[in-house]
Amino acid sequence: MAQEPHASQAPPTAPTAPARALLPFILPAAVVGVGASLAFIGVSAAAEQLQHVLWGPLPDALGVGPYSVLWIFVMLVATGIAVGLVVWKVPGHAGPDPATVGLNAPAMAPVVLPGLVLATGLMLAGGPSLGPENPIIAVNVSLAAWLGARLMPRTPGSLWPVLAESATIGALFGTPVAAALVISEALAGRPMRGRLWDNLFAPLTAGACGAITTTLVSHPTFDLGLPPLGHPDGKDVLAALVIASATALLGMCAVYAFPYVHAAFQRLRHPMLMLPAGGVVLGALGALGGRLTLFKGLFEVGELAHDPAGWSAGQFAVMAVVKLAALLVAASCGFRGGRIFPAVFVGAALGLCAHALVPAVHPALGVATGVLGMLLAVTRQGWVSLFTAAALVASPAILALLCIASLPAWLLVTGRPQMQLREDGTPLR
Q: What string of DSSP letters covers 46-79?
């Protein structure tokens, strides 16, 4: 008769890798980390300089207010025309349709990258509501794969994209924690040999080098400077559950509309029609929402958080809805960019709207849970959503509330379409 196994017996675990198996990955991971960070900093700095000219000295010289309704409309239409020309004429056409690309970008031929960088820089400077994350990751993944195959041909080709993605995420957020969370979430969905930490060693090295390079060069911060929450109570738990779920539902409205808006622009068939048309719609939305609803939104969300009492609940709501609509249009008509940073603005504006409606809702709690719900809907990245929401408010007391609030919000978004399309235009699930 077979003997029953003891309950105390632990299941077998994969053996840890010896140090000599991990040491060879340190140098390539460090090089990729530093290079990815410098690429991100270079594109961002060039875009910021161009933005300063386009939205400062140029309208002043023309006698037009830099954020007047006229100039907002002119600039966004002009940006659509400029990016349309790049997509149409530059070799490689600035890469694939951005609506079909997420954070895990495929490696592209080097000929595609100059056009993608140019289209991204013009977009960041011109005002459309997208961030730099998706195209910068795509550029770094492509460069790492191309250079790695030539300089270190014996290294597995599958390693370079993982290193480049981790390095870029670390550079974008200024910390390797975000990179480790994204990679661990990706590894959970695929077969993995050995221990999780052994698999994370090289990506974490790349993310750490990318993050520290960005920190030393540009000193980024995500903390909005809101007052800390303090000891949470029952009303804080209720507010966290309601705000995260409500923002997730609003985000899902945009997700469900995404394939239809994308299909409407695709009917125009040519980038010199799709992108200028998108610029026209974005110009109208920018004129309605004002200057804070332009650009990727990270600097602008800091302005909102600096004075939570400076706007009414209605104004916060209008800015959130306009920004979400602008994100939807910009991501559908062909602008090259990512969706995380504008989604952060939408979630923060909705959280501050909740604070304005119900002053008992702490502003830090409103912002964190609003960002959490919106990011869960838009990105479907649980760890990144939790990390970003927590990083914005830097309040340890909110961490438990965010974990609790993520549960009903996740139930609302899981198994439903994502804000990313397949090549045939159908949504991913």
A: HHHHHHHHHTTHHHHHTT--TTSHHHHHHHHHHH
Q: Are 33 and 172 in contact (CB under 8 A)?
A: no
> How far is Cα 145 from Cα 109, in angstroms, rounded to an integer?
10
Task: Among 19-23, 49-53, 56-60, 124-128, name the one with the lowest average pLDDT.
Answer: 19-23
Strand partners, 421: 427
How far, in Å, CA of 205 to CA of 269, rounded? 43
Q: Which residues pair with 338 in a beta bridge?
A: 131
With 60 as the cut, is the pLDDT of residue 291 above it?
Answer: yes
pTM: 0.91
CA distances to 99, 170, 192, 278 from 266, in Å = 11, 34, 39, 11
Q: What is the pLDDT of residues 11-29, one digit of tens each?
A: 455 566 677 777 888 899 9
| Residues paired with residue 427 on neighbouring β-strands, in sequence order | 421
The token duo for 197 is 């930490």
What is the separation of C-alpha 384 from the centre of its chain, rounded to a whole number of angstroms?
Answer: 9
DSSP tag of 338: B
Nearest in space to 244 (alpha carbons), one of 327, 319, 347, 342 = 347
Give the integer Cα–Cα distance in Å for 106 and 102.
9
- What separation in angstroms does the CA of 61 have from each of 14, 24, 46, 56, 70? 67, 56, 21, 9, 15
Query: What are the tens digits of pLDDT across the range 111-135?
Result: 999 999 999 999 999 999 999 999 9
The CB density around residue 272, as the number of other CB atoms within 10 Å, is: 16
Could you give the CA distance from residue 126 to residue 405 in angstroms, rounded to a whole number? 36
Distance CA 337, CA 138 (A): 10
pLDDT confidence tier of residue 76, bands split at 50, 70 and 90: very high
What per-residue string of b and e applies to 64-99 under the rule 16 or more CB within 10 Å gives b? eebbeeebbbbbbbbbbebbbbbbeebebbbbbbbb
Q: Which amino acid is at 80?
A: G
**Six-digit token string for 339:** 């969706």
Print burial letters for 326-338: b (CB count within 10 Å at least 16), e (below 16). Answer: bbbbbbbbbbbbb
